[in-house]
Amino acid sequence: MALEDDGKTMQGKAGGGTSQRVSALRGLAARAAEAQESKSAPVPPKPKALKPASASGGESGRPSLVRAMMRNMEADGTTPVPNAERPRISPEPKRRARRTPAAIPAAPDLSAAFENEPDDRVKRARRAAERVRQRAAPTLPAEPRVERPAPDPEPRIEPSPAPTFAPKPVRLAKTKAFAGFEWDIASRYLRARRKEGFISVIAGFSLVGIGLGVATLIIVMAVMTGFRETLIEQILGVDPHVNVVSQTEKFENYDTLAVAIRQVDGVIAVSPTVEGQVLASSASGHSGVLVRGMRREDFAKLKVVTNPEASVGDLKKFEGDDGIAIGDGVARRLGIRLGDTLTLISPDGDLTPFGITPRSKSYPVTYIFKLGLTQYDSAFVYMPLRESQLYFNKKGVVDSLEVTVADPNRVDDYVQEIRQAANTSIGVYTWKDSKGTLIGALDVERNVMFLILTLIILVAALNIISGLVMLVKDKARDVAIMRTMGMSRGSILRIFFICGSSIGVIGSVIGCILGVLFCLNIGAIQGAVEQITGPVFPADVYGLSGLPAELVWTDVVKILFMALGLSFIATLYPAWKAANLDPVEALRYE
């Protein structure tokens, strides 16, 4: 009844538009009342599974709930909308409001926080704050500091203004080239260890190869130079520097011409000579010799007399037909000693009714010389000039004038001056015209030997490359660790450059010392070897009695620098590979 009265009252207030809603609510109240009555009446029990969840005893509160809802609707002046008319739209989920990031507050002026405490900590804090402010904005000018009034009337001590500090420039850590730690690491890599024993063996072989190559090249160059200089010296000691001959007839006024030629600057001596080939005979055999007639004062100026390798006799009897001088080779071949008689037979003899008969005459041997050059020791016989003119039927004439100059190497510069001084039709020939081909061949052979023996040093330098490449492969992990620790590429390159160049420098210096010592004692070494193995340098084959060696220091320095240069060049590629090693790749599988 109350629901009906309430429904009428609501209908009167809300109008006819809400009749449907009121009827729906009345139906809902009727169903609630029926449910309450059915609960109080005895009802047969039902299965628990079919019992609704809402029959637990909470239905008693539904009518009051409905009434409360109706009262609220009447108070609002609205009526509930039927379920058929309500739009079924899922409610929009609520979105959380985004939090705006808090703004970073500007850096406060820290100087105001310490105004009232002028002690040491405050000063240090103020200075630190000032440095932080200056480093934060180094380009902006510092703002003038505004002094705030003190809150307390008591007098206080004003702190001293904080000093300004300029920002320190960033400095890159650099190491000097070839620093001590680079030498230390390189020396450790070169030391023999059990793990890197094979690499150390290769380095040792490279060192020995460079040393032997440098020593061999120095010895060969010294021997070639000694052979050339000895040959030139012997040739110039016997043969004339310049030979002047007549183009028309024999020299009759040779003394006058000799005086004119001596006036040329650089001419030391002019000697008239007579020359011819004869047969020398003794009790022991026969041999062809070359007889050269000279005055005793001119013969005494020759190297065969002034500085022979060996000599026997005296030149006091070298005058007229009292004696002759022969070479050591002629004496040994014919079995002649000092004081023996040597018979000379010339085909240009006296003219007789039966024709020209050979001329034969015997002379005592008063002087035996040995130059050390086989072609002169075994062929030359010197005779006084007057006796040679008589013997060869050239009385009053000579065959040539032998001119000795101060600088034989510049002998071509004297040719034109000698022609002008002679003022006659003469032929001028230098020692280079007769022996120049031989000297040129020696020079070519010397240069070729230098190039060939340089290959020994080059092969040793290639061994340095192979050893350093293996060392770089073995030390790849160490290089990667050093690179990650901050070592520069230049330091890595210099470490391995020191490893390779040390081998080259040590080997070159050792080889240089060995080569110089060998050249300085080559005579003693040759004698010791010949006592064991027999003759190793026969004079009849090589034309010299001993192995000559003349050490030229410019050649030694050139060979040393060449070996060092090849060693340095050989170390560049392995050192460059080590410097460009990628630490990531090296440590990938570690």
Structure description:
The structure is a single chain. With 590 residues, this protein is an alpha+beta fold. Among the domains are: 180-228 and 440-586, no CATH class; 249-424, no CATH class. It has 20 helices and 10 strands. It has a 6-stranded mixed β-barrel with strand order 2-3-8-5-7-6. A hairpin with a 2-residue loop joins strand 6 (341-352) and strand 7 (355-370). Helix 6 runs antiparallel to helix 19. Mean pLDDT is 75; it is low at 1-17, 46-61, 78-87, 102-108, 113-118 and 138-142.
Ordered list of secondary-structure elements with their pairings:
Layout: H1 2-14, H2 19-40, H3 62-76, H4 120-136, H5 180-190, H6 197-238, E1 242-246, H7 254-262, E2 267-282, E3 285-294, H8 296-299, H9 303-306, E4 310-313, E5 324-327, H10 328-334, E6 341-352, E7 355-370, H11 374-377, E8 380-384, H12 385-391, E9 400-405, H13 415-422, E10 426-430, H14 431-474, H15 476-484, H16 489-520, H17 522-533, H18 539-542, H19 553-579, H20 583-586
Parallel strand pairs: 3-8, 5-7
Antiparallel strand pairs: 1-9, 1-10, 2-3, 2-6, 2-9, 4-7, 5-8, 6-7
What are its keywords?
single chain; 590 residues; alpha+beta; six-stranded mixed barrel; disordered N terminus
How many DSSP-defined strands?
10
Shape field: rod-shaped
Please work out how many helical segments DSSP would assign: 20
Tell me which oligomeric state these chains represent.
single chain
The helical percent reads: 40-55%
Estimated structural class: alpha+beta
Report the portion of residues in β strands. 5-15%
Give a short account of the largest sheet.
6 strands, mixed, barrel
The SSE order reads HHHHHHEHEEHHEEHEEHEHEHEHHHHHHH
Looking across the biggest beta sheet, what order are the strands in?
2-3-8-5-7-6
Radius of gyration: 62 Å
First CA to last CA: what distance?
Answer: 96 Å
* pLDDT < 50 runs, ≥5 residues: 1-17, 46-61, 78-87, 102-108, 113-118, 138-142
Mean of all residue-level pLDDT scores: 75
